[in-house]
């Protein structure tokens, strides 16, 4: 195992168990590590600090262990078993009315660069680092073993998540098993899961509890679901007794999936209508007499890195300002940011600015976040990426 030595003073974050080592902290390496190689990390005096996957880029090492140990099959089994036990403790494993949850959440489960979502008995695996990509087959086999066969199929999907500079050929397909269920249940509602062509692993698992909250408020309301993707919020609003539900997404394929999911749960129900249209254009065309009682704003990440933060904040402000203008008196606004680069304070400031511009009375009813199956490593606050507010607008 090759050794990377850190500059003086650059080991402090590792003493606080932060799982990232940035390229600027590295003093030298005894030999040039290969992309994705497991490396040993020491401080400037040669004292052991960590073991992790090396990668060329801003984040040079993703830490797997702060104690000396081999990263082998036993290591993968132990970490995956810990992740599975946590989901069992959360009551997510084996629930017939809820077959959708996140099984591995990167740094939150001590497996940086790895995401695994479960749909029924099919696990969809994504590698966000070269090291995890190279370990994909060992991880898939270990996953089937530690779950005692609960996971029967492992589908690998990393064509959009691996660093493009690594030069790795995109790869998708089953690592274990040959097929998986195309429909899975979430709190008794059924959804088509498009893990082949869909965003992320095929579904936005992280909004499960927030969708359920929206259902509680939907009765009798006219609901607008912006950036609907596969229509999760729309389906919950329908079950909650919404008077009408309009779903909007710029992607025609997303709208097709939304309509399929509505039909799967509410065949022949005429309360729903979908629009394949740009969000800002659609909002701009809402007439004063066509306002909504409940609006959901769940846009894609406006900022994927720190250089884009300023423009992202402007985007969130503009989007929420339009929603405040269009929502009916007494309405509810569910507004979100999934940008890791945007802090809770920055997102709230953008929403507050938009509220002030509207001149309306606005109150916070709920502060929302990712669910417990997306755990946040207390030493890695960057893992808290999903921010949301439920606002009452007078």
Fill in the keyword field for this structure.
Rossmann fold; 20 strands; 10 helices; 394 residues; Archaeosine Trna-guanine Transglycosylase, Chain: A, domain 4; alpha/beta; Transcription Regulator spoIIAA; single chain
Task: Explain what you see.
The structure is a single chain. The protein is globular. It is built from ten helices and 20 strands. The chain has helices at 12-15, 73-89, 130-134, 136-146, 208-217, 232-239, 252-265, 279-284, 309-326, 344-358, and strands spanning 2-6, 20-22, 26-29, 38-42, 48-54, 59-65, 100-105, 114-119, 122-127, 153-157, 172-176, 183-186, 189-192, 222-226, 244-249, 272-276, 292-297, 327-337, 362-369, 387-393. By secondary structure, it is α/β, with parallel strands linked by helices. The longest helix is centred in the C-terminal third of the chain and has 18 residues, at 309-326. It has three domains: 2-65, PUA domain (Archaeosine Trna-guanine Transglycosylase, Chain: A, domain 4, Roll); 73-185, Transcription Regulator spoIIAA (2-Layer Sandwich), CATH 3.30.750; 204-393, Rossmann fold. Strands 16-15-14-17-18-20-19 form a seven-stranded mixed β-sheet, sandwiched between helices. A six-stranded mixed β-sheet has the order 2-6-5-4-1-3. Helix 6 runs parallel beside helix 7.
List the helices and strands and how they pair.
Blueprint: E1 2-6, H1 12-15, E2 20-22, E3 26-29, E4 38-42, E5 48-54, E6 59-65, H2 73-89, E7 100-105, E8 114-119, E9 122-127, H3 130-134, H4 136-146, E10 153-157, E11 172-176, E12 183-186, E13 189-192, H5 208-217, E14 222-226, H6 232-239, E15 244-249, H7 252-265, E16 272-276, H8 279-284, E17 292-297, H9 309-326, E18 327-337, H10 344-358, E19 362-369, E20 387-393
Helix pairs in contact: 2-4, 5-6, 6-7, 9-10
